[in-house]
Amino acid sequence: xxxxxxxxxxxxxxxxxxxxxxxxxxxxxxxxxxxxxxxxxxxxxxxxxxxxxxxxxxxxxxxxxxxxxxxxxxxxxxxxxxxxxxxxxxxxxxxxxxxxxxxxxxxxxxxxxxxxxxxxxxxxxxxxxxxxxxxxxxxxxxxxxxxxxxxxxxxxxxxxxxxxxxxxxxxxxxxxxxxxxxxxxxxxxxxxxxxxxxxxxxxxxxxxxxxxxx
Length: 214
Fold this sequence. Notes:
It is globular, with a radius of gyration of 17 Å. The strands form three sheets. It has a six-stranded mixed β-sheet, sandwiched between helices. It contains seven helices and ten strands. The chain has one domain (5-206): Rossmann fold, CATH 3.40.50.2020. By secondary structure, the protein is of the alpha/beta class. InterPro entries: OPRT (IPR023031), Or_phspho_trans_dom (IPR004467), PRTase-like (IPR029057), PRTase_dom (IPR000836). It is an enzyme of class 2 (transferase).
């Protein structure tokens, strides 16, 4: 679910402007999973544009507090959400931790890096939601450390039904600055894509794992 419509449209426009999101239905990208996709999203680019990263920081800080209440800790999911997560934590005057995909193989073998006490309220910051599996693994790691997860806030989601199901099953509320639906509407409006291309992009979102296969 998006925080609000105005933020969703503005965020989508900014992501398109800096090529953090690229739309190419005619020459689809191949994801690491092997899926063919007419969209590629790299929200790490946000950090390279001061005015845009400040906008994302401020919208996160304002909407996290409004939606979840002020938590005790902000957690970022490594590696894509560490930078944005730190910015949000700094803006809210809160401690920050980050979650590795898996525990370190040496030293203290931490998966959660930083100081976290049992029972603390945590909002998790993520850059991108596809199926939600890696994001929810971070939630599980935090819960294993005794954290009380208030919810997750992400820059963008593709809006896959499987992600909705995964978050529901994990009992995690997800809110995003923008999503696929608002992105496509904005992309047509600003003439990044045609209405025919929009139809192709909508078809992909219905069945992304099989789209483009012969």
